[in-house]
Design brief:
Length: 85
């Protein structure tokens, strides 16, 4: 998955550079279409794959503010305040 994401990212960068080159030197309308397709592809294909890869195996509860997590944070802050006093 990691190598797939790297290759896909490089291909998106190449397509974006090609679109910018095409827009500036050959045909602005076609260059805009290439850039737009690249942006849509990165937003709707690359981003979900990347997020899935990064969040795989992690618990969402560790990153949300629940009452339990707030209590842990308050306890940690009070320990820090006691140590610095």
């Amino acid at each position: 998955m990691k190598s797939f994401l790297r290759i896909f990212f490089v291909l998106l960068l190449v397509a974006l550079c090609y679109g910018l080159y095409f827009k500036g030197n050959i045909n602005a309308e076609v260059g805009d279409k290439i850039i737009g397709f690249t942006v849509l592809t990165s937003a709707f294909l690359f981003l979900p794959f990347f997020l899935y890869h990064r969040w795989k195996g992690k618990r969402l509860e560790d990153y949300t503010l629940t009452e339990e997590n707030l209590k842990k944070m308050r306890a940690g802050i009070s320990k820090i305040n006691k140590q610095s006093s």
